[in-house]
Amino acid sequence: MPTSVQSCHSTSTSRKLSGKRKQVEALIGHTFSNPDLLSQALTHPSYAHVSRTESYERLEFLGDAVLDILVAELLAEHIDKLTQGLMTEIKAALVNADLLGYLCFDLRFAETDRSINTATREVQETYERSLADYLDFHSDVAGIHQDAYARYYQFRRAAKQELEHGARHPWAKLKQMGINKMFSDMVASVLGAIFLDSGQEICSCRPFARRLGLYQYANRVIDEQVDVVARDALTDSSHS
């Protein structure tokens, strides 16, 4: 029988997990009927044995296929003005691991620290949290997360400028950012989790793709004829 201390700890942990789940659901635009799927989607293989939760690997596999379908839907809407070769290049740009890793860090919301300044009585410090912050991983790979964050902040303005206004897809800039593949895997795993949770409804996955900014960029690539073909020696990352 659990002691009162154990019960309090269990309740506190449960509340913390519930709060985390709600934050992620608000960020990705999907409320889970089966929270275990979201837990799996947020569990890196290095952490699975610690949390006793299955890692995101199987969901990532499904999510890769879901992403391919979402991109195919977008291309189908414009098929009359796209050649087969160009569709191949656009798809390669949109499912590229470097782009998905960047979008994982770029999907974020502002959160306010509830500490109070005793002099002014004002709430202090608003900071941002990204989807990448919710990935559970072992301390052995914490350095990868820190390095990815540092590189994201170093290159994000230049990458954002090129993605929103550039005449060419920023293959080299995204490659230079060097965000580890585990974050593009995370994006795919969330797509896979949403797909399963919704009863395998592709339409339920679209809001997340939209929140990532993937749809918006895809439409700009097609409408403004962004050059996705030109690359250099730095680039070649297959998707998750």
Automatic annotation (TrEMBL):
<dbReference type="GO" id="GO:0004525">
    <property type="term" value="F:ribonuclease III activity"/>
</dbReference>
<dbReference type="GO" id="GO:0003723">
    <property type="term" value="F:RNA binding"/>
</dbReference>
<feature type="domain" description="RNase III">
    <location>
        <begin position="21"/>
        <end position="199"/>
    </location>
</feature>
<keyword id="KW-0378">Hydrolase</keyword>
<dbReference type="Pfam" id="PF14622">
    <property type="entry name" value="Ribonucleas_3_3"/>
</dbReference>
<dbReference type="GO" id="GO:0005737">
    <property type="term" value="C:cytoplasm"/>
</dbReference>
<dbReference type="GO" id="GO:0005634">
    <property type="term" value="C:nucleus"/>
</dbReference>
<dbReference type="InterPro" id="IPR036389">
    <property type="entry name" value="RNase_III_sf"/>
</dbReference>
<dbReference type="InterPro" id="IPR000999">
    <property type="entry name" value="RNase_III_dom"/>
</dbReference>
<protein>
    <recommendedName>
        <fullName>RNase III domain-containing protein</fullName>
    </recommendedName>
</protein>
<dbReference type="GO" id="GO:0030422">
    <property type="term" value="P:siRNA processing"/>
</dbReference>
